[in-house]
Amino acid sequence: MTTNGFQEITSDELEVFGLSSYESRVYLSLLSSGIRTAKEISSESKIPFGRIYDVLSSLEDKGLVDKQESRPKKFVAKDPKSTLSNLLTIKNLELESLTQKAVLVEEKLTKLHTIKPEESLFWSVALGEKAIGQYIEKLSETKKELNTIVNLRVASRMPQKDIIMTLIDTITILNSRGVSIKILLSGVSPGSLEEEYMASIAKFFDVFDRKIVKYCLKCTTAFDVIDNEKVIVKVMNPVKPDEFFAWIYVWQKKFAEELKPKFHEMWSDAHELRIELK
Fold this sequence. Notes:
Layout: E1 2-3, E2 6-7, H1 11-15, H2 21-33, E3 36-37, H3 38-45, H4 49-61, E4 65-68, E5 74-77, H5 80-112, E6 122-127, H6 128-140, E7 145-151, H7 152-156, H8 163-176, E8 180-186, H9 195-207, E9 213-215, E10 222-226, E11 230-236, E12 244-251, H10 253-269
Parallel strand pairs: 7-8, 8-9
Antiparallel strand pairs: 1-2, 3-5, 4-5, 6-12, 7-10, 10-11, 11-12
Helix pairs in contact: 2-3, 2-4, 3-4, 6-8, 8-9
């Protein structure tokens, strides 16, 4: 409904600020009707009379309504400017309290989260663009150790905006937490390094100590071993070999322990790039 070209507000628009449906209807009714008794408000807002005093009391507590202590009691809506200010203050206080509680709840939930597959197996598969976000999410959950293979050719050609910098940002955060990290760069041989891949390599060496970054000539399969119990296998697209087809997440300690020596074998055979990175 519109009045003189002005679109009237609905109760839904007030509910997002923390008011109930009844509270919104009563406040809107009072705004347009002026001073009213509880009986009149109940009739005009179509709120059951048995509920009207509870609703008015709540609105008064929230600073939206003033009450006149007469017989019968009368009520009037406060100015909308102060009303919204009061509602925002209440929401901010609730958010601050919720944020503080979240820290304690997270600690308690973390203590409960003790079930870890060992001999049992949990796995999931992610395909396409959605897989990249899930892959980054899994990496960010690393607590102690990350051994990762980054295929520069594939990462540099991903449609997502600067996936390499996203990887670097994620690994940087892990590094600041004290996570043990080894990064094997693969995908391009040093003898045929193109400028676009040189830039990608430079980004890694600009951020990380060369001791945790090496170049692998024999990394035919890209995978990550996380915390010696989780594995991410990156499956190449057989139709387009320069693209990842899927990420396979495997949570099984036995598999991770079997794959970790394979990573260390490749790490031992890997090389430092003896080139100038501009």
